[in-house]
């Protein structure tokens, strides 16, 4: 399943219902006005929908995505002060140096904390409940990702490693945390 | 520089305010503040609108509100600092008066979150961390961000879910006496424990509701404050700091660093000793968007030692009569959290407490004549700590 199909399944049902309701309201009263079910207050239903999809420039850190698609997780390192950046950035804003070095991360660390998201945002509704964790890697940097384990097996302080996986059902590369046995 | 006082306060009923639009909602608070201070719109030199925005249909809220409330053509702007928006708006007006740019300034905090349907609201709040690295792929929700702190503290300090429940129970208890509060119903521990998990370990009863509401304060310079009122409440100091957008870039998940630093800044200016800070205040308003946030606030403000915030809750030390009464207006938890209005609402609550004008059942004993407001934006992305007093700060 691709993004288009998921979007259709996920949103069209909601959008379609809302639009049909507006049509019905206008047909009945000549106005897009309804009563709030709980309070009976009168509400104007906006007929101008706003859908936003942003385009985020990633050219300066494209190497991260390039490596990710090859199964590797990289950070960046300042040649001057040695600072390691994750999420990767191409500027060391501490010493005002650009074009930082690429370093492959060990991917091994310890789970600092986690949560299980049971009430999900609309755009994540098509996933099962997911565990989000933050791990501290050997390099001293933190990484936030889904923890792909059963909830009962997840503990603060457990050893974890970062894995590159395909995010299904959309089918693009991302990373996750797994327990080290 | 001149001292600045609050000379008028206004507060709307918080809740599901589908009976009014954004500007009508703001007017409820503006009108009350004007009447309370006996001032007219023409007396206001400038007005600042705290409105996080994005929730309601009008993108230029300050202008829509200025037009409706008859405040135009006075200068204005919309201020945003996430959930600390109201305190940021207060800061702008406070500094304008301090700098001699205005003699009387109005701060209006307002948010109408119910214009956005619930699923959209959850999505919008989740996106307010670091969008690209933490939302786009990992879908953290707002309760999720705070849950990461709760999990860590439970593992590290032996904090229990029941300790969080104590916060919810206290804030609902006081909310039941506040006619402006969204929830006016008390809750019991078993109801708390049974409430649905939204982001483990946080439950529905750990979270503040999605709320509509408005609050306003009128600030004046020392010179005119004395002419307007014989009971000014002075702003002693304000500390403000920021944190990282990426939660993963925080050091340890047991404290909101920005809030602690903001408190240190405010205390330094007010000559307050951090370790004994609670001895200086009669009442505190802290940012309890989630129960865990209130526990951390106890420590970040110096009311409890690090790692012991939950013990203060367990012992009931933050009820009236305890070490320090906290959120006795119901807090964000029961009063509600209309993002842009919250910081201003805190200032209104503290002012009315110090003047013995709090609602029956919520009034504290005023011995020191001082109160404190702690307002966090995001999950420690922004932090504002403001100290209020019956005594003129430079006196
Ligand atoms: Zn550097």
Plain-language structure description:
- Chain B: This is Acetyl-CoA acetyltransferase.
- The complex is a heterodimer of chains A (181) and B (395).
- By secondary structure, chain A is an alpha+beta fold.
- Chain A has helices spanning 3-29, 62-68, and strands spanning 33-35, 42-44, 74-77, 84-85, 91-92, 97-98, 101-104, 108-117, 130-137, 142-147, 159-167, 172-179.
- Chain A has three domains: 3-44, no CATH class; 57-105, no CATH class; 107-181, OB fold (Dihydrolipoamide Acetyltransferase, E2P).
- A five-stranded mixed beta barrel of chain A has the order 8-9-10-12-11. Chain A has a three-stranded antiparallel sheet with strand order 4-3-7, with helices on one face.
- In chain A, strand 9 (130-137) and strand 10 form a beta hairpin.
- Chain A is elongated and about 70 Å long.
- Chain A starts with a helix and ends with a strand.
- By secondary structure, chain B is an alpha/beta fold.
- Chain B has a domain at 4-117 and 210-228: 3-Layer(aba) Sandwich (Peroxisomal Thiolase, Chain A, domain 1).
- Chain B is built from 14 helices and eleven strands.
- Chain B has helices spanning 22-37, 61-68, 85-98, 118-126, 131-135, 142-157, 161-175, 189-194, 222-228, 257-270, 291-300, 309-314, 331-335, 339-354; strands at 4-11, 46-50, 75-79, 104-112, 197-200, 202-203, 212-221, 233-242, 283-285, 370-377, 382-389.
- In chain B, the strands form two sheets. A nine-stranded mixed sheet of chain B has the order 3-2-4-7-1-8-11-10-9, with helices on both faces. A two-stranded antiparallel sheet of chain B has the order 5-6.
- The two termini of chain B are 13 Å apart.
- The model of chain B has no long low-confidence stretch (mean pLDDT 97).
- Chains A and B meet through strand 8, strand 9 and strand 10 of A and helix 4, helix 5, helix 6 and strand 5 of B.
- Zinc ion is lined by residues 78, 80-81, 83, 92, 94-95, 97 of chain A.
- Residues 78, 80-81, 83, 92, 94-95, 97 of chain A line the site of zinc ion.
